[in-house]
Amino acid sequence: MTTENLIASVLNEILSPKGKSVSRYDEKIFESGLIDSFGIVELLLALENHFQIKIPYEDMTIQNFASINEISRLIERLK
């Protein structure tokens, strides 16, 4: 499974109780209203746990979490 697929799975687990889901890897998750400031904290913790990484504070930017593609680039760089 690709990093993008794994991120989509984690994100959709967070979104499913709200009746939402992400359908494209380039979908802007903030701009489309899929996730808010509370959801990003949940996503951040889930990604750190799932990928066994620590995301540095300086990398916690809207640009790095704008879409699944951007999150994937961040995770690949941190591995």
Walk me through this protein's architecture.
There is one protein chain. This protein is globular. The mean pLDDT is 95. The protein is mainly alpha-helical. It has a single domain, classed as ACP-like (Non-ribosomal Peptide Synthetase Peptidyl Carrier Protein, Chain A, Orthogonal Bundle), CATH 1.10.1200.10. The longest helix has 15 residues. Helix 1 crosses helix 2 and helix 1 crosses helix 3.
- End-to-end C-alpha gap: 16 Å
Q: Work out the count of structural domains.
A: 1
CA-based gyration radius: 11 Å
Strand content: under 5%
Instruction: Give unreliable regions as ranges.
Output: none
Helix/strand/pairing class, anyone?
mainly alpha
Name the CATH superfamily classification.
ACP-like
CATH topology: Non-ribosomal Peptide Synthetase Peptidyl Carrier Protein, Chain A
Sketch the major β-sheet: none
Number of strands: 0
Provide the succession of SSEs. HHH
By CATH reckoning, the class would read: Mainly Alpha
Q: Which shape, going by the Cα principal axes?
A: globular
* Number of helical regions: 3
By CATH, the architecture is named Orthogonal Bundle
Whole-number mean pLDDT: 95
Percent helix, as a range, is: 40-55%
